[in-house]
Design goal:
380 residues; single chain; 15 strands; 35% helix; alpha/beta; Helicase, Ruva Protein, domain 3; eleven-stranded mixed sheet; Rossmann fold
């Protein structure tokens, strides 16, 4: 990925080398605007493709769309009021260990909790309060009743009828059922913006997006401008990625979830929770989390933020503003001499720490790689 700026020796990074080499696959890339963090992220993904690692990007600004398309990937563009092709209530089997044996099951409890959490998060955003105990209980009941009506259980076979996957419940189905329960009319009305045709009805319908056998998936959020719509889009996309991408294939399939401008997601604790889930549980499923951010200090202000960056066994700190350079040296326990390097670094230059080794590096894409990894923003 580059070279050591003092010795000139080449720098190789293999996040998936195994716990005997590196504690986990997670990585933090931090640097101010123009420091080269997006180019570095794309370069690392490009190099990891040669090692059969699949990648997914949450892309707030459309900076990874061109890159994804050029590499034969799949771009999912989210827009307020338009169905994304992803059903938040869709379920898939997951591989678990039971009595020392691998088996598959449909985790309906986790999916139900996920839907309840989404609606509770929406209520918190609107009113500053989540759901009370009765609302949460009846919402959970409504979701479970939708699965029971379709005879969907923890048995993976229950997802199919005659070899064809069953029609899944949707948010509209849950909302209608909830509206029939005594005292739940107000909550049912509050859910309406999330339904098809609503201002943020991006996840209400039968899943049409299929995870093709492609190297990269990009969730393009550039058209999602309002804070509330971006909150819902981020939450639902991360939830969908966790089940449909991160857990698929377990450790036998290497994969990474890359979050650009990750500091934005910390504004909403409910969204930050999914980053923490990926950081904490992703390793068991062979999934790396890559946190790409210009404001790493934002992560140090909350317990969930600290948990996320502290879980990253590999950190790359690129050029920082002077106050941020001081903070980086202190937080990551770097040598005092790193402060001047970080404050004066050119694009792609920084401090890499992995496997207990700290190096001053220059990230250097090869000439034939530059047309792919340089930043190109598309409108949609």
């Amino acid at each position: 990925m580059g070279h050591n700026i003092f010795t000139g020796s080449l720098v190789f990074l293999d996040r998936f080398a195994g716990e005997h080499v590196v504690a986990n696959q997670h990585m933090l890339i931090s640097g101010e605007t123009g420091s080269g963090k997006s180019v570095t992220a794309r370069l690392i993904t490009l190099l990891e493709l040669d090692l059969n690692t699949k990648a997914a990007y949450i892309d707030p600004d459309g900076e990874y769309v061109y890159y994804t398309e050029k590499l034969g990937g799949q771009v999912i563009t989210l827009m307020p009021g338009r169905f994304s092709g992803m059903n938040i209530l869709d379920v898939e089997p997951e591989t678990i260990k039971e009595n020392g044996r691998k088996t598959e099951r449909v985790n309906l409890q986790e999916k139900t909790a996920e839907v309840v959490d989404l609606i509770a998060a929406v209520m918190r955003y609107y009113s500053g309060q989540g759901l009370d105990m009765r609302q949460a209980a009846l919402l959970e009941e409504a979701v479970m009743e939708e699965y029971r009506e379709r005879e969907i259980t923890e048995d993976p076979e229950s997802l199919y009828s005659g070899g064809v996957k069953k029609t899944m419940p949707t948010l509209s189905d849950v909302q209608k059922r909830l509206a029939q329960k005594a005292g739940m009319e107000a909550l049912a009305d509050a859910i309406k913006p999330l339904l098809a045709g609503g201002s943020i009805g991006m996840f209400d319908g039968q899943t049409t997006v299929k995870l093709k056998d492609v190297p990269i998936i990009c969730f393009n959020l550039k058209q999602v401008q309002s804070d509330f719509a971006r909150f819902v889009a981020s939450y639902a996309s991360l939830a969908w990625l966790w089940q449909k991408f991160a857990q698929r294939g377990g450790k036998s399939i290497k994969k990474s979830v890359n979050i650009d401008e990750a500091w934005m997601f910390l504004k909403h604790p409910d969204v930050a929770k999914y980053l923490e889930v990926l950081a904490r549980r992703g390793r068991k499923h062979g999934c790396a989390l890559t946190v790409i951010t210009q404001r790493f200090e934002e992560f140090t202000h909350t317990p969930s933020g600290r948990a996320i960056i502290d879980s990253c066994a590999t950190i790359l700190v690129l050029k920082q503003e002077e106050h941020a350079a001081d903070a980086a040296v202190e937080y990551f326990n770097l040598a005092s001499g790193c402060r001047d390097l970080l404050a004066k670094a050119g694009p792609g230059m920084g401090i890499l720490r992995t496997s207990g080794i700290t190096s001053a590096v220059q990230v250097s894409p090869a000439p034939f790689e530059w047309p792919l990894v340089e930043t190109k923003v598309v409108g949609t």
